């Protein structure tokens, strides 16, 4: 099944009397269980595309289907539930909560959904991610690479269908970035998640099943 299907998606901003297109007539299918890289220059529309996929933003034209459901036809409440349950987000700047320890950080999306964490599953993720010993550390006590691993663990905690990662290795050195990429790859291969990742790095993109390149809001290949 298609995880995501975009048809004729455009996003326009009114800039005075001019219209600025962040996305233009994008047609894109992301199949379930695949790892896709999104590349393009600064300002080409990568984040806008990811935000559309994550139901964080709505197109001004066109249709976005997630698992066959039309996001444009859903109420904000349903969209919020979908973001909480089906989509894991990973950002360049980790976005962990400083006042919570590692364990609580990864449980936040579960608490927000008023569910009980599946301890055994989360312990397993932490073990695979090499974080078991640091469960009670606070974000400020962790390295950048460790913080990004926590962010991926948090994204996986809800067992999402889709993981959206916006330059997840952007703040990391080469080796740590490769480790983080490896964990995203593992999430896809071993856990069957669909991953879409924005990256500026050709080498990282080469590890993906597919590379989508955007130029000036259009998909060029
Ligand atoms: N809220 C907004 N209002 C007006 N223009 C916007 C808004 N958000 C984005 N844009 C414009 O849309 C275009 C695409 O932005 P987007 O953030 O998607 O680019 P990007 O490829 O992710 O860039 P970067 O690599 O620098 O993060 C840019 O020209 C940007 O200035």
From TrEMBL:
One protein family per Pfam: ABC_tran
Annotated signal peptide: none
GO molecular function: ATP binding
Superkingdom of origin organism: Bacteria
Domain ABC transporter: 4-220
UniProt entry keywords in alphabetical sequence: ATP-binding, Nucleotide-binding, Transport
SMART domains: AAA (SM00382)
SUPFAM superfamilies given in the database record: P-loop containing nucleoside triphosphate hydrolases (SSF52540)
Keyword Zinc among record annotations: no
CDD domains: ABC_MJ0796_LolCDE_FtsE
InterPro entries assigned: AAA+_ATPase, ABC_transporter-like_ATP-bd, ABC_transporter-like_CS, ABC_transpr_LolD-like, MacB-like_ATP-bd, P-loop_NTPase
PANTHER family (alphabetical): IMPORT ATP-BINDING PROTEIN (PTHR24220)
The protein's name: ABC transporter ATP-binding protein
